[in-house]
Amino acid sequence: MSRKRVVDGTALGYAACALAGCLWSTGFYFGKVALAAMGVGHMVLYRFLFACLGLSPILLRRGIREAKSLTGGEWRALLLASFLGVPVQFLMQFKGLSLTSASHAALMVGTMPVILALGATIFAQERLDKLGWLALCGSTVGVGLIVLSGSGGGHSHPANANTPHLAGDLLIVVSLFISLGWILINQRLMRRHSPLVITVYGLLAGTAMLAVWVLAVDGLPPVRGVGAGPWLALAASGVLCTATTTLLWNWGIHHVPASRAGVFLNIEPALGSILGVELLGDRLGPLTWVGGALILTAAVLLTSRGRVEADGVLE
């Protein structure tokens, strides 16, 4: 493969990860809107049902034929990743969201790039130098400054009425460690298979596992009595924040090292905080500008420097 095509694929990979981070940034807000009308299990189930609906055209067009190339061992790995990435991660994460504030939930997500870089270094043989680690840490600090700056003032809002709670914060952090397994297993599978196939079948399998658990524990999800706002929030979180973002992220880490892609996960809490501030009528203080500068500097630093040695990136 020519050097130009490698460079173009890398640039598009970074762009895909960045766009995924932007769409993910709305997830906690939509989650709060939906949680006002139903419980955690039913909300997460509806989110993934909408996601599967959005992915159905891809499945009908390409997925059935290409799925035949997966071996038995690869199917087992895909099912394990689906179990970790859908029912375990999301039920735990949104249970945490139901116990804490949206701003604190966003702050906890700011720890993900460091978790991802550490996991990629240990399990995927990716090498990140001292400057790269400094950039990731600086980006995470920037997220914290933005969220802390925007969480103190403004007016209350029903979708963000919960107060910060340590148990909720810790559940979200644990869910991020679990998502590391999902990311790294998917990256390994995408060395041999299309990101579309891994994404579609991973979400379908995970949704089936989720449905079994939720129906057994919580019963049938509500249909009547749910307002238009929660339904729109569920549809947006499913199609945009789950189906589209997972496709973009899986395609992105198919072309760039996971350790470097991790910096774009900071867009989620950063932009999510700004979105929350705007919806709540808060003012952006100096800490927000400092945090934004740290995140942008880290992103430019990690994506413009020399090549990272990584066994998990296809060329």
Please sum up the structure shown.
By secondary structure, the protein is mostly helical.
Q: Supply the number of structural domains.
A: 1
Distance between the termini: 7 Å
Helix count, DSSP H or I runs of 4 or more residues: 13
- For the CA atoms, what is the radius of gyration? 19 Å
Q: Give start-end ranges of low-pLDDT stretches.
A: 152-161, 306-315
Strand content is under 5%
In round numbers, the mean pLDDT is 78
Query: Structural class of the secondary structure composition?
Result: mainly alpha
What's the helix-strand series?
HHHHHHHHHHHHH
Q: How is the main sheet built?
A: none
**Percentage of residues in helical conformation:** over 70%
Tell me, briefly, the overall form: globular
Number of strands: 0
Description of the structure:
The chain has 315 residues and is mainly α. The chain has one domain (3-304). It has 13 helices and no strands. The protein has helices at residues 3-24, 27-35, 40-66, 72-99, 102-109, 112-123, 130-150, 166-189, 195-218, 228-253, 258-261, 267-280, 286-304. The longest helix is centred in the N-terminal third of the chain and has 28 residues, at 72-99.
